[in-house]
Write a structure and sequence with these properties.
- The chain is α/β, with parallel strands linked by helices.
- The chain has a single domain, classed as Rossmann fold.
- The strands form 2 sheets. A 5-stranded parallel beta sheet has the order 2-3-1-4-7, with helices on both faces. A two-stranded antiparallel sheet has the order 5-6.
- The longest helix is centred in the middle third of the chain and has 25 residues.
- The model has no long low-confidence stretch (mean pLDDT 91).
- Bound molecules: thymidine-5'-phosphate.
- The site of thymidine-5'-phosphate has 12 residues, from helix 4.
Length: 215
């Protein structure tokens, strides 16, 4: 491999990203491919603090625009100090979420504006984008059933989302936003039916990853 590849995973909370990232990670290890696993928000020390602000202080009021900038600050730090150096070193970067989440959650579903959030994301990512993005698509009715309070890496309980995860209407808006983005970027964003078995989802993902790294 002569250059790095950037792969991101997107989906509603509870769509199975963590499982799929772990399966891909195992495959990369088995094939001796140098990779890093990272996430937004929270892929850097600053990002962990931003994640705490966002998800562990329910009493803290944050406007949608302020929230947008917090996610972008996380992203700026993440790209500069983690993603871009790893790509320059020829590694595969596997990220649990990237800027499509900002566009879908803040830009479209929260109403901050798609164009504005897209431009801010472009700045924060220094003009870079994932080579391949998987949107794990699941019916919001199924997502709510899977969604609950989770723990962060230090075992702290996190709200699953600041964004009224119980509201199916919000989840539907989000799903529509991701599908709209997938239609706008059909080469980069692959929509994967996440209602299949985890192994079937993994195989669908692998087919795209293999064709990317052999391209
Ligand atoms: P996670 O639990 O999958 O790591 O995601 C954290 C939450 O943050 C999830 O509800 C999606 C949301 N999010 C945004 O609203 N905007 C963003 O830019 C990112 C990266 C995540």
């Amino acid at each position: 491999m002569t250059r790095g590849y950037f792969i991101s995973f997107e989906g509603l909370d509870g769509a199975g990203k963590t499982t799929q990232i772990s399966l891909l990670e195992r495959w990369l290890q088995e094939h001796g491919i140098d990779y890093i696993r990272t996430r937004e928000p929270g892929g850097t020390a600053l990002g962990v603090e931003i994640r705490r602000l966002l998800f562990q202080q329910p009493e803290l009021a944050i406007t949608p625009l302020a929230e947008t900038f917090l996610f972008q600050a996380d992203r700026a730090q993440h790209f500069e100090t983690v993603v871009l150096p790893a790509l320059a070193a020829g590694k595969v970067v596997v990220s649990d979420r990237c800027f499509d989440s900002s566009i879908a959650y803040q830009g479209i579903a929260q109403g901050v504006g798609r164009d504005l959030v897209e431009r801010l994301s472009h700045l924060a990512a220094q003009g870079h984008a994932p080579d391949l993005t998987f949107f794990l698509d699941l019916d919001p009715a199924l997502v709510s059933a899977r969604t609950d309070v989770t723990q962060d890496s230090s075992g702290q309980r996190e709200q699953q989302s600041r964004f009224d995860s119980a509201s199916e209407d919000f989840q539907r808006r989000l799903r529509d936003a991701f599908l709209f983005l997938a239609a706008s970027y059909p080469l980069r964003i692959q929509v994967i039916d996440a209602a299949q078995t985890p192994e079937a989802v993994h195989q669908a993902i692998l087919a795209h990853v293999i064709s990317l790294i052999h391209s």
